[in-house]
Design goal:
The chain is an alpha/beta fold. The strands form four sheets. A five-stranded mixed β-sheet has the order 3-2-1-4-7. It has a five-stranded mixed β-sheet with strand order 10-9-8-13-14, sandwiched between helices. The chain is globular and about 55 Å long. It has two domains: 7-115, Nucleotidyltransferase, domain 5, CATH 3.30.420.40; 135-280, 2-Layer Sandwich (Nucleotidyltransferase, domain 5), CATH 3.30.420.40. Helices cover 36% and strands 25% of the residues. It starts with 6 loop residues before the first strand and ends with a helix. The chain is built from nine helices and 14 strands. Helix 1 (47-67) packs across helix 2 (104-112). The relative contact order is 0.15. It comes from Sphaerochaeta pleomorpha (strain ATCC BAA-1885 / DSM 22778 / Grapes). This is Transcriptional regulator/sugar kinase. Keywords: Kinase, Transferase. Belongs to the ROK (NagC/XylR) family. GO terms for molecular function: kinase activity.
């Protein structure tokens, strides 16, 4: 569905403490993010607090659309799983636990009434939005690995997102066995912080602080990201070979440490004789919004 010249899509990206939202214009096969904001939400809060967070995001989106003299023709939501993307029912327990089994669609409709609401997994939305950048036009099988609180993955094959029966990513890697644990135990916020401690870090640091210290030359902090990049390489190498992936895009907030991650990741892939273009996403914060808007 292409929107008319005076209408737009409101895209939401539901995170742990904020909802990113953007007004997206779609016309002639092109998508343009014309405005962007963040509003607070407590994913660990009560039903009422979560409803309030969504209501605030929708109200802000309506205001942004009005500012640009646009009306909403659809609402697209990028959200992590487990989630029933067809019905809009949340199945999450690690986030938004208070609304487990409830319809996020109905929560949103308390504010929007008759505006259509559709949902997409956040990893899929990220890849769909990022891949619109012209730099990726020459690639046939792009994939994204999203490193944040958890570990996400998405892939496009033959021009289409690979999805499972519930419309989530067709390939999931966070629970894949790796070194006696799971991939997410090593490549995630907690994985990086645990590695920092294991390597001898004495002060409790956030991933952001470890990144900043590494950029300043701290050898221990640099080692944390080098080893994390190597872990990513070992985890994705079999997938790249099996699926014929020719472009791997790093997303998620931790991917902003790309200068520290990409070299060890690429060098690890070379030990498998893999030739794959690896890069940091150009639009880490906004790609899920533009991607989710492709639902309309």
């Amino acid at each position: 569905m292409n929107t008319s010249n005076d209408s737009c899509i409101l895209a939401l990206d539901a995170g742990g403490t904020t909802i990113k939202l953007g007004v997206v214009l779609k016309s002639g096969g092109c998508s343009e993010l014309v405005d962007f904001q963040e509003t607070p939400i407590q994913s660990s809060g009560s039903i009422g607090e979560i409803e309030e967070g969504y209501a605030k995001a929708i109200e802000t989106g309506l205001s942004l659309a009005s500012r640009h003299h646009l009306k909403l023709s659809g609402i697209a939501v990028s959200t992590p799983g487990p989630f029933d993307y067809e019905t809009g029912i949340s199945r999450m327990t690690h986030k938004y636990a208070a609304i487990y089994g409830q319809s996020v669609k109905k929560i949103i409709e308390q504010t929007t009434k008759d505006i259509p609401v559709r949902f997409m997994h956040d990893s899929s939305a990220f890849l769909l939005g990022e891949i619109l950048d012209p730099r990726y036009r020459s690639f046939h099988t792009p994939a994204a690995i999203i490193i944040g609180t958890g570990l996400g993955f998405a892939i496009i094959k033959q021009g289409k997102l690979l999805l499972n029966a519930s419309q989530g990513p067709g390939i999931s890697i966070f629970r894949r066995p790796y070194k006696g644990k799971t991939a997410e135990d090593f490549v995630s916020k907690r994985g990086i912080m645990n590695l920092y401690t294991e390597l001898g870090g004495s002060l409790c640091k956030t991933v952001r602080e470890i990144d900043l210290e590494a950029r300043k030359g701290d050898e221990l902090c640099k080692k944390v990201f080098v080893q994390t990049g190597m872990h990513v390489g070992h985890i994705v190498a079999p997938l790249i070979q099996e699926q014929g992936i020719d472009c791997l895009i790093l997303g998620g907030q931790i991917a902003k440490a790309d200068r520290l991650l990409i070299t060890p990741l690429s060098e690890t892939l070379q030990t498998y004789s893999i030739d794959c273009f690896v890069c940091k996403a150009q639009t880490i914060d906004t790609a899920p919004l533009v991607g989710a808007a492709q639902l309309f």
